[in-house]
């Protein structure tokens, strides 16, 4: 209760210390910190490379990912798969398809899984979070109880639950399954932010100005609540990719034979891992590097926009 | 229902033959010997893929339960190791009347159940009557009875009519058990070798309320007989089921009538993951496991493990649902599909060593086998022209394949689908792919005729053609929906008639004819392959005889070193 | 405090109730199911119908639910149909819960033992090579799929090098007595050291695999929290009082920095369960995670129900306990 | 600062009983009658129950005339902000009424209330946090205008914006900038301009200068008083700095624990503080003059402000009052009564204290051994 | 005046940040304090008051800044002392209290422990005696019911009591120098009066030297013997308090006094604020940092950096090329008469 005066003063001092008299915006000052963060740069480079790959990768693929071009060199009974050879950089997979082409095409699928699952989860979370945060009261209570129930189920179980609902497991079902698990996370985060915004002075000021409630929510509260949500999204892309892989591992992943996804490739390679480690190794490495990239990016962003870490 | 197996295991005082400890002599030497794991010579540890349902085989249908039950129990007959042919077990001999309706079994003398009671004709009849007398939940669970014998004693169908049964009764006549049937069937006597037809101790069955199966919500609760006190006459006795450590422990039955078990303790260690089983074997912590991935065979062999390949006793087929897609009603289209599939390439690239392309719906080890049927070689052009003839050049098929499953006839459904999808597309057929979990829509959907084309197969229970094609096509509302075709009822009648022929040679001839017609005129499905499943044991294991019926008996198994 | 506990427990009941409805309805609407699980590929329409009526599955779903609820309230969740068929589902859960507790507890202890000191260390050397290195390591820990890591560990240490058993919970024929159901503890209680050691050997690799994510999270939260606390005014006050570094570290920095770590540790129990599903599957470790994975493929509804409900309860209870613990450590809450 | 006009003119008699007369008085712009804001304290096992209240504002009556500046002072937590917000109905009052220009604000429905807000505006204490960091100054200023249908587009709008900026002394270039690009004083000017944009009659300024350094504070104070002169605004200014309040207010209300304890013209109040609390407050304010500081007599209050959730019985101030008299002060809550014309005090013994017939108790000294 | 206890010479603190030029927060500040004397450091936010005090205590972060100059405490240069030795002195010879009493107390440690830890550290006392001593300390700073308070946590105390507890901690080892950095800013005026009285008693009765840092000229006027006005990291004016308030010479000091609305001033009077804000400063190297805001700026101001030199009576130093003319009559003369 001790004077808002003190708090305001501290903020001012804080802004003085940090922003050299001239305040800078959240993201601008975050950028100042990020510029010198090697972790951020590593993450950024990985992600850029990955996104580029996802865009052009499928065009670079020397073969169609579904063609069993090397089936003649494949034998399950002798546990033989086609070795690397001219035109087939990494050899074939258990079905005699070109592993390298599948990896290239898989990059796009993997990016799709990560990004779409995140977007979907984000949208769901936004809706719930905005509902709870904008209305408060019983709406908040109801929404948050739902979120509590969702959160009390470990995320992978939720994903499994959703995945089994789909009778035809494919990329879409994986995306939806993973997305659903992210909804409560986003909803929580956003609701917290929205509630904080609700009590903030500038929202009060808008109310005092007679701005209509809808405009207050969408012009003031939502935009100002989004920063941590954006950061979280970066991290969620990484977990989505990993979760999709975990679903594949449990046999619940995409079964689409024509559009390979790295997690799916890793899942399929499980039982050959000791005789043909390459089958699992390449998709695994790709997943790890990309997940690491997003995590690095997300964590360094998180640190950069966190006012607490500004000291 | 009693279900405190776990607490039972945890409350027993140390040392007093605790269920969790090995009861053999090595128990005294404690840790150092025990920690040797699979290395102890008088203990055989087998990696099981799943937990047994319980230990009363009457109510079971699954291999994991049967595997344990086969060690504990015997039936009137059993299968000669390594074959599907019957040989004497609790009965030393048997004969049937000319009409095939009366079967007389002569019981072996001096055999005792594990509880010390005597195995005699009365006990045999008691068991068969018990099976026939199942009611309520027990009746729904005793599937091998209803599959083979039909109805139960008091069973009524929806119209209130008694459900017909093959079984008429059993009389104990001195040391002879006389079983009467309502009609002749090819299934007899082979079916008596199935674990479900095991002869168990009447005393124990009564004492532990064996028939008291209760349906509860999603599931069944079993009486303590089935969970704690299975009492058979087999070479091993049930000792414990340690759920905390996922192991079932059996110990040698020293009163067994035949050759005593070679190892004092037989442990089934439940390891659901196939890879984990392999690695445990490699690490020496188990002595063997079932159904190694064909891809691992060569590697395992190279590493000194014995991969025992069983004779193939199964069939994989591509089912064509009649009456679903109008195009499939045309025989030409079905023939075209048969020509389109490159079965040979699939078999060589995706199936284990020893797998063969199948021309009919059962392997050559089954009676009434013939390869003198119409053959559909891989021929894309032929397929295309047949399709063109049928006016189906733009055919689109809804192709279903299962996930979350691996079967002996189909180790990796995805690879089957991948291969055949490509083949069909090469023949100009558009493939709409639908994948569903095995028990998560696939079986249900296929049964409900939702697919045009689907993958399925069958592993035989015993050696009769009826067990294969009889199961597939006798009903007309089967999964191929043959009833919608004019020949569906015809095929059904032929099969029924063949099954009832008492004379084996006549019967076999009848089946050969049926196979020819199926291949030439009907094509309700396209047989793909017979693929041999394997069982693998460590290099120091002797005496395991692989069985086409997966009926391995571990009593003969021993370990060196 | 008591009021808080009661409140949380009542909320828990509410959550469990809603969860049980959702779960029930959802499971019953899945394709496939018990009937298919029991009948397999031998199903015929008559048999299906018969089985459905015997099991009461042909009744309206709410009737089924209230029957289930009635039984569940007496502790009867039905019998397992796939994981350990024929065994009471609650019993399956309880037996396997012990296994998961051993696994999860060990993992979280491992994560705390490594995460806290390293987190502190990194924070004190913020921006240094060591700090960045540890951050990257922890993030790699997050980025590597748990099952893949588990697989690698098993392959290298168990299969290739043969140092540790590749799977399972205890060597089957070891002479071990069960007392509590926690194998490591049992061995210690009965002085069967070899049994304990055997159980520990089975646990080492799963522990490591399962601990990576909690470690990363705890490490990072410790680091962030130490960074924050060490900039607080009261630390400066402590410095101004001339206190020794060790007093400042233990009494002023760590005691405050541990508060978020406690909360996060509680929240990690959820993540541990997820990790357990994967880790236990890879290591064929008979815990509830494996039960769930198997239960899902085998459509073992009773087990899924009891495991999901019980783990949600466990999650909430653990977090309640953690909150209470938090209150014990944080007087601002305790003395409110 | 030109405000002599109002200063000399004492307000008409306004005892509590005749408050309704005030609400009808055409000269009175704002009339607050027995306003109460009680924040419930909720706690409960499953559902939250109200277990008590924070009596943030507990029966405040006051009237503000057109063109006047009314100052509110008091210690932290005494309810100033809550009162200010309750006047604008930014918090819902628990009881009492607020009449603005004869209209009962406390009874307005949502839409009329929103429209009413055009006429009553607020300036916030913390200049940065009360500005949306994601909006440019232009959109901050236009927002209110748009909400009330004041033309914002085209030349008229631009002209209006420029006018607003120049009124608070900011360059036109500020329009495209964002709040963080300004200094504290400039931000507060933006806040004032925002309030002005909708052409209000009343501005409630909640500690408008507290967060600013003295030099900047003076600039903002000047802006406020210039605007009043130019636009004839009415102000309610909340502050904890008595010097600031005295400087800008015509009349001042002193709050203690949610209630007014004294109200007078600012000249009167500082010349003849009559409530013991006001006296203590005035004696505690440091004066930047060593001579004054060395010579003045201090009334040191004991202890801290009691909790507004659990206010003392009787006179709220009796727990700390150096003039406290047995039983009456503890039991009977004094009403705000007229001591002299336009000078209201809520103290049983105000007259005696003013007359010097009642002496304070010896102040307990804080001593270092 | 007695021999100085603490002599700060040419103290300079620079902050280094990657990517930007080093920032000089304190720029050659010198002053001295004697036992029983109170020296004030005043100035607006950001002028370097806190940094000065932290530099004296050597409490600035270990990295990211550089400190030069000397801080002579009874003959030892604190700045060149090994850190270990400095730790021994902090809390014993020189103590400090901070602005925000809540955040300056460890929220999870009872008050008693926070007081006794100083006694245990510097006076080698055992728990029991230390607790007794702590109780007396709390009592002596005017905390009622000290035995109970010892067991309580900071959040259970009111703002004033927290600040008293902090003072008790600072005084535990009877330091000869106390640095108070805005000790009353977070407190209400009535509580501020209590704390200021306490500090005043401390200085007069114990002869403790006090460095009082504040932005409130009123507080300085009532408490300090000598006042240093800081601007942009430099002392711009120093004088005895009577001299300074009666006759401010630096335009900045003058401006500050002019912009404060005063209880003793004329209410209607228009305030004359200093124009602009701190952000308009120029570096000291380019002349006088205050020049851009100064009403008395002359050409010289932008060319030559002014030195701190005597501008009026003895001991009255200023840093200005064009100081304000002496005031004829004291502005508050009439009110002073009234009040006395
Ligand atoms: N939304 C709220 N819910 C509960 N209590 C509140 C709320 N807002 C204010 N209070 C309480 O009401 C009392 C008065 O608060 P208010 O902010 O009006 O005081 P103030 O005089 O403005 O103090 P300050 O000088 O600190 O701004 C305080 O005790 C405060 O804790
Ligand atoms: N850790 C730091 N890193 C960089 N700059 C700093 C740091 N601490 C202080 N400064 C800078 O030093 C200058 C002086 O700061 P200081 O805290 O001493 O001001 P102050 O006079 O105490 O102000 P206030 O009255 O607001 O407390 C400020 O401009 C600030 O930006
Ligand atoms: Mg306020
Ligand atoms: Mg400061």
TrEMBL record, chain A:
Major localization class: membrane
PROSITE patterns the UniProt entry points to: ABC_TM1
Pfam families from the UniProt entry: BPD_transp_1, OppC_N
The keyword Protein transport is annotated on this UniProt entry: no
GO CC terms, sorted: plasma membrane
Family the UniProt entry places it in: Belongs to the binding-protein-dependent transport system permease family.
Designated name of the protein: ABC transporter permease
Native organism: Nakamurella flava
From TrEMBL, chain C:
UniProt keywords, alphabetically: Cell membrane, Membrane, Transmembrane, Transmembrane helix, Transport
Gene Ontology cellular component annotations, sorted alphabetically: plasma membrane
Residues passing through the membrane, by range: 9-27, 103-122, 134-157, 203-221, 257-283, 303-329
InterPro entries: BPD_transp_1_N, MetI-like, MetI-like_sf
Record's subcellular location: Cell membrane
Main location: membrane
Any Pfam family the entry gives: BPD_transp_1
GO biological process entries: transmembrane transport
Topology in membrane: Multi-pass membrane protein
Annotated ranges, domain ABC transmembrane type-1: 97-326
Domain of life: Bacteria
CDD domains: TM_PBP2
Family according to the record: Belongs to the binding-protein-dependent transport system permease family.
UniProt name for this protein: ABC transporter permease
Organism in which the protein naturally occurs: Nakamurella flava
UniProtKB/TrEMBL annotation, chain D:
Membrane-spanning ranges: none
Record domain ABC transporter: where: 41-282
Species of origin: Nakamurella flava
InterPro entries in UniProt: AAA+_ATPase, ABC_transp_ATP-bind, ABC_transporter-like_ATP-bd, ABC_transporter-like_CS, Oligopep_ABC_C, P-loop_NTPase
One GO BP: peptide transport
GO MF term (any one): ATP binding
Name of the protein described by the UniProt record: ATP-binding cassette domain-containing protein
Nucleotide-binding found in the keyword field: yes
Family: Belongs to the ABC transporter superfamily.
NCBIfam families linked: oligo_HPY
Keyword tags: ATP-binding, Nucleotide-binding, Transport
Automatic annotation (TrEMBL), chain E:
Entry keywords, A to Z: ATP-binding, Cell membrane, Membrane, Nucleotide-binding, Transport
GO cellular-component term (any): plasma membrane
Localization of this protein: Cell membrane
Record SMART domains: AAA (SM00382)
One annotated GO molecular function: ATP binding
Primary location recorded for the protein, binned into one broad class: membrane
Domain ABC transporter: 6-257
InterPro entries linked to this entry: AAA+_ATPase (IPR003593), ABC_Ni/Peptide_Import (IPR050388), ABC_transporter-like_ATP-bd (IPR003439), ABC_transporter-like_CS (IPR017871), Oligopep_ABC_C (IPR013563), P-loop_NTPase (IPR027417)
Membrane topology reported for the UniProt record: Peripheral membrane protein
Entry annotated with the keyword Cytoplasm: no
GO BP annotations, alphabetical order: peptide transport
Membrane-spanning parts: none
PANTHER family: DIPEPTIDE TRANSPORT ATP-BINDING PROTEIN DPPD, OLIGOPEPTIDE TRANSPORT ATP-BINDING PROTEIN APPD
Similarity section: Belongs to the ABC transporter superfamily.
Name of protein: ABC transporter ATP-binding protein
Organism lineage: Bacteria, Bacillati, Actinomycetota, Actinomycetes, Nakamurellales
